[in-house]
Design goal:
Layout lengths: L21 H7 L2 H6 L21
Length: about 55
């Protein structure tokens, strides 16, 4: 059965191994859990400053 979110630092997730079955995941996400769930904070890398070719101002 799945456990709650890990207490590891928020570094983003690029891949995760799922060991639970589809049915176990659906059983975990009860109406109550869905209502209390909060989305993870989406952290985007800062946009690079716009570069102008030399001599153009």
């Amino acid at each position: 059965m799945p456990h709650g979110p890990s207490q590891e630092p928020d570094e983003g997730v690029t891949h995760i191994e799922v060991t639970e079955t589809h049915e176990e995941i659906l059983e975990y996400w009860t109406d109550e859990r869905m209502a209390e769930a909060k989305p993870r904070e989406l952290l985007l890398p800062p946009e690079p400053e716009e570069q102008h070719p030399a001599g153009e101002d």
